[in-house]
Amino acid sequence: MGRSSGKWWVVAAVVAAVVALAWASATDLQANARDRSERDALAGARHQLDGSELDLAATTYVRALATNHRGALEENIHTTLGRLASADESLHGTDTLAFLQGLDIGTLQTCLGGVKSSLGQIAARNNEQAAQDIAAVSTACLTLDGGAGDGLVYPFDFPDPDIILVGDTYFGYATNSVAGNIQIIESNDRIHWAAVGDALPALPAWAAPNATWAPAVAQIGGSFVLYYDAVVAGGGEQCVSVATATQPQGPFIDGSTAPLECQPALGGSLDPFPFVDSDGAVSLVWKSNGGTGPATIWSQPLDPTGTMLAPDTGPVPLLTATQVWESGVVEAPDLVLSGGRYLLFFSGNNWNSAAYGVGVATCTGPSGPCTADPTGPILTGGSGIQGPGGESVFTDTTGATWIAFHAWLPGAVGYPHSRDLYIRRIDLSAATPTVGAAT
Hints:
By secondary structure, the protein is α+β, with helices and mostly antiparallel strands. It has helices at residues 2-45, 52-91, 98-123, 127-136, 138-144, and strands at residues 152-154, 162-166, 169-175, 182-187, 194-198, 207-220, 223-232, 238-245, 269-276, 282-288, 296-301, 316-320, 330-338, 341-348, 357-363, 370-372, 386-395, 401-408, 420-427, 434-435.
């Protein structure tokens, strides 16, 4: 009984420490990367932006959060390593815990060592080296988080992911879980990802700081266009904004004086997704939060630049929650054209729970109508992950199709636990698209 309880104490310590440390380290890295990116981009963006005092206040707040995270992390690292060293001594020689003793504890030390080294580089304001230190221990941290058996590729907080392929490089964008702007990572193989920094170093004056989510990027003409949620300063609703850059890693500049799309009477507009049709026509797909009507996914044409709503058009509803598993929620739309079919992927149920999942609907075009698959969600939680959602469907360099999504670890569901990044194959040729096992 003593050995068994000791074993699970160590397992619990490993999982709890890695989840907490990975989440805090990644968000701390992004917050500090924001500082550097802001300094580089602010000179060129200042003429487009008002409210520099607000940006300064946000930066000061981010630095304070980073300092707090760093102090807590260092204390947690020392405490956890001390406890594990004691557990290692007491459990030495037991066959049952040979794996933990020979691999997990050493792997944990490798992971935490990289985290600690990264924090030291952050303190020295060497963010490039900090990102390299995190990337160097990604495999160790992946092992502690359960390995890649469920498709885990980035064991740090990366909610609402959007993945695009530019040349031979994959870029991932996600909600920033501390500072509110857009975190970005990159990969050459879809499996090993490294932090790049903050894709959106400054916000327009109308947007409140620390409240930007659910980014999506499309290459339109010669520009990369970023769509994201922002809260209207002064207590307003979530609304959709747009920013542009000349390269996929940014910096994206948002010189707007008002949101691109907003529906205050419907609880706000969020979760934007840009859809580029086979003829080059661009549409914006998003979700209204509810308000006086049910949660609904909408679509509206954009102009050829993708930065303005097309004239003489209006939003049209694509989908509302009609199935039991959705529990009144449809969100995070991702529209894909495959084999002549328009497939609308979406998330349903409560994002902060294990019941969250991914569904699909078939549409007659980007303006609908759309009909949800009646068989239910195509991706739900299981023994290795809980509450998958925020999906992004993309193709790799060979033309194979994949689905990226975030998910909670079992036993660590709900905020403030991290939602790590997973990628799995998806078959779009069947009547109902099917998500495969991780490879």
